[in-house]
Structure formats: C-alpha cells, structure tokens
Design goal:
The complex is a heterodimer of chains A (213) and B (227). With 213 residues, chain A is of the alpha/beta class. Chain A has helices at 6-15, 86-94, 131-137, 198-203, and strands spanning 22-25, 44-47, 51-55, 76-83, 100-103, 107-109, 114-115, 140-144, 156-157, 172-174, 178-182, 187-192, 209-210. Chain A has a single domain (6-42, 93-210), classed as Glutaconate Coenzyme A-transferase (3-Layer(aba) Sandwich), CATH 3.40.1080.10. In chain A, the strands form 2 sheets. In chain A, strands 4-3-2-1-5-8-10-11-12-13 form a 10-stranded mixed beta sheet, with helices on both faces. In chain A, helix 2 (86-94) packs parallel to helix 3. The relative contact order of chain A is 0.16. By secondary structure, chain B is of the alpha/beta class. Chain B has one domain (9-116, 149-219): 3-Layer(aba) Sandwich (Glutaconate Coenzyme A-transferase). The radius of gyration of chain B is 18 Å and the shape is globular. The termini of chain B are far apart. The chains are: A alpha/beta (213), B alpha/beta (227). Chain A binds chain B through residues 47-51, 64-68, 72, 77, 83-87, 89-90, 93-94, 118, 123-133, 135-137, 163-167, and chain B through 27-31, 53, 77-81, 87-88, 91-92, 98, 100-108, 110-111, 122-130, 170-180, 207.
Chain lengths: 213, 227
C-alpha cells in the first residue's frame, strides 16, 4: 500500500487551503502544513496565544523570547500582522471567524466526533489547551493523522473510545492512506493515494467507508 | 497624587496571604512575571490556588512554587508541557489538585470576572467530559455549557512598559492572558521592563488602562543583561 510520509501528508492538506484563508494549525504535524502552502496564495495564520499573521521561524539573532506559537516555538510576525489577548483570540475561534483549523487526533468517529486531548490512561495529567474551542468554532475542521496507531489499530471508529474533544465537529480527515469527508451519509472517501484500494483502506478502518463519488 | 510604582518586588507581594487565589499571566515562557513569581516564592505564602495557562517547566516560574510545595491547586488548560517535571511529579503523588479548563473557557471565565458577569454560556466542551456536572442550555438549536466567572485575590502580570497611573503596554505575544487577568483580581501587580512618565504612553495604544492595576514594579536587571 502507498503510505505518505509526514511531509507528504502536510503537503496534501496544504493543497486544500485556499487563498485568503484564516487558518489555525495545531501543535505537531499540522504546524508543518504552512511549509507547503504555495507562495501564490496568501494565507493568514492565527496562533491561539494571540497572533494573527504568524511568520516563519526567526534568524537566531532575531529571536524575541515573547514571540512564540502555540507549540512554544519562536516565530516572527508578518507585515500587517497583529497581537491581541487570549479572550480576543478565542473569540476569533468560537465566533466562527477562522476558516480552517487543522488538528491532530487520537481518534475520529463515523459522525465526526474528535478525540485528541486525553486517553483513558489516568496516570498522566490531562491537557486540553485550545483544542475544544477550535473544534467547536472553526468553520471547517480538518484532521491530519496517521490512519492507524503504531500498533496498526484503526483510529477511525464507529464511536471514539477516548474522551471527546467535540461531537460531530470534523469535516475532513487526511491520513497517510486517503482523504475522507465526514458527510451526512457517512464517511465518504474523497481520494485514495497511489494504487490504494477502498478494500485495503476499509480493512484498516473500524467504520464503514463509502466509495468516492 | 496617584503613584502605583512599588519600590521593590518584595514589597509588591508582601501582603499575599496563605490560601490566596493567584492568577499568573503568561503562555509557555512568554509574558510571564518571572521576578514577581520568585518574590512570591521567597515570601512563602502557602496553600495557594494558581490560575495560569500552563504549570511551569524545569525549576522556573510556577514550577518553583510547585517544587517548594506552596501550591494546593492548579487551574490551567495545558499543565503538561515538555519539562513540566514538578507538576507531573506532584500529580502522580496525588499532592496537587487540578482543575482542567479549555483555554478559551479559561480566558472567558477570567474576562467575565473582570467584567462583573456571573458567567458565560460557551459551546466549548459541550457533550464532553469537561462539561460533566455543569448546567447546559440549548440556545437557537446549539448546545452551550454554563461556565462561571473566575475571580482571584491577586493577579501577577507581565507588561513591557507601565506608568505611575498603572497604564500598561505589552511586548508582542507576551500579552496573552495578562490584560484579562489584570481586570479580574482584587489586587493586580504588574512587573514591567521599564517605567515611563505619565503621559508618555500613546493613549491610543494603552492596552491595559490603569484603573485595573494596583501596583507597578520594575524588573531588576539580570546579570546577563547587564554584561
């Protein structure tokens, strides 16, 4: 089967981000989506800690220790960008002002439920950050994740086993095998990479997949 | 004459009592009032409830309060960053209470307290474990959770510049939770990089109006900055 690597996965999401979009990228693999958005598009990235117009990493001698993104990495501000407090930042999210949020996930259900903040292991302290706000607020929520866990267990399920971040919030899932839309009819495969077949991808998915239209 | 400038970090925190609810501004290591936190640690008030987005990393900031066992409860959205060894250790030992609040809800509960509201209905967390036991309401077909206002006894915040009236401006993304926390505490103490004359800050650019600020204390110059 054809499995995309991390960079190829991020690059695939980047293709679907339109010119002029306001976008929030989650911590980890989603952050790298920005590296693959083509230069002919102008996309404005929001960072939950209070930045609109996040730019690339600074030169080592130009670091401002206060200027970090949600993943606590040093960033820069693009010309025309601005700063604001956390209440205003989350008003942008909940108020439906962001066009797209791209988040990682532990599990996604057949009806677009998202689980990405806690497992069922109580030994570790839970952490939620801005995930629940983004989940309910962004106009479109894209999930970017591997299709299966490291031990090959499906991450797309009829029902999530882990605690929910939000119910019915995911619009589209980008995995290393396929792109899948969450629709009223169910999970509709939008794209299969390479020669991957519906049957092969279905075998690694614990929810029914509908064929591409 | 209004003069909110406090002569020392130590004096600025001297009346913080045991059991106080203390908001601490910052996000990661950005916009954190590190020197006020150190003054609070040396002051030694115990059984504190700390409201802050994160729980500190390594031995610094909030982590140093945890290490010295001065904190009874943490209210935050993301306590588990890489290097949050002290929070993780106390959590595993069952020595600290955690109230986990989604980040936007944390911001809005703080804002509500500062704005004199009893709380807000937010869609965030509806239908999840973090809404269990809370009042919910369907408004125009959409589910919301009632989140109550979260006031504090003291807010320790970090700003870039401040004046004797308590007007503040911030540095880049160091703003984060600082302006809203300034509004929500009985006593707000601001650590600033430098104090400027009243009238020097452009009134169009003042981010936190002085009415919200009780004390302004200037950072001590660090050894490595002076070199």
């Amino acid at each position: 089967m054809m499995r995309l690597n991390r960079n190829e996965m991020a690059s695939r999401v980047a293709q679907d981000i339109p010119d002029g979009a306001y976008v929030n990228l989650g911590i980890g693999m989603p952050t790298s989506v920005a590296n693959y958005v083509s230069d002919d598009k102008q996309v404005i990235y929001q960072s939950e800690n209070g930045i609109l117009g996040v730019g690339p990493a600074p030169e080592p001698d130009k670091i401002d220790p206060d200027l970090i993104n949600a993943g606590k990495q040093y960033v820069t501000l693009l010309k025309g960008g601005c700063y604001f407090d956390n209440a205003e930042s989350f008003a942008m999210m909940r108020g439906g002002h962001l066009d797209i949020a791209v988040l990682g996930a532990f599990q996604v259900s057949a009806t677009g439920d998202l689980a990405n903040w806690a497992t069922n292991d109580d030994k570790f302290p839970p952490a939620v950050g801005g995930a629940m706000d983004l989940a309910v607020g962004a106009k479109q929520l894209f999930v970017l994740m591997r299709h299966t866990t490291k031990t090959n267990e499906p991450k797309i399920l009829e029902q999530c086993e882990y605690p929910l971040t939000g119910a019915g919030v995911v619009k589209r899932i980008y995995t290393d095998l396929a792109v899948i839309d969450v629709t009223d009819e169910g999970l509709r495969v939008r794209e299969l990479y390479g020669d991957n077949t519906l049957a092969e991808v279905q075998a690694l998915t614990a929810a029914t997949l509908l064929p591409p239209l | 004459m209004i003069n909110k400038i406090c002569e020392s970090l130590r004096a600025a925190v001297a009346d913080i009592e045991d059991g106080s609810v203390v908001m601490i501004g910052g996000f990661g290591n950005s916009g954190i009032p590190m020197q006020l936190i150190e003054a609070l640690r040396l002051h030694g008030a115990r059984e504190l409830t700390i409201i802050s987005n994160n729980a500190g990393t390594a031995e610094e900031g909030i982590a140093s309060l945890l290490r010295d066992r001065l904190v009874r409860k943490m209210v935050c959205s993301f306590p588990r960053s890489s290097g949050s060894i002290w929070f993780e250790r106390l959590y595993e030992e069952g020595k600290i209470e955690l109230e986990l609040v989604p980040q936007g809800t944390l911001a809005e509960r703080i804002r509500a307290a500062g704005a004199g509201l009893g709380g807000v209905y937010t869609p965030t967390g509806y239908g999840t474990r973090l809404a269990e036991g809370k009042e919910t309401k369907v408004i125009n077909g959409k589910g919301y959770v009632l989140e109550t206002a979260m006031p504090a006894d003291v807010a320790l915040i970090k700003a870039h510049r401040g004046d004797a009236w308590g007007n503040l401006i911030y540095n880049t993304a160091g703003r984060n939770f600082n302006p809203i926390m300034a509004t929500a505490a009985r006593i707000t103490i601001a650590e600033v990089n430098a104090v400027v004359e009243v009238g020097e800050l452009d009134p169009e650019h003042v981010v936190t109006p002085g009415i919200f600020v009780d004390r302004v204390v200037v950072q001590k110059v660090q050894q490595h900055d002076a070199a």
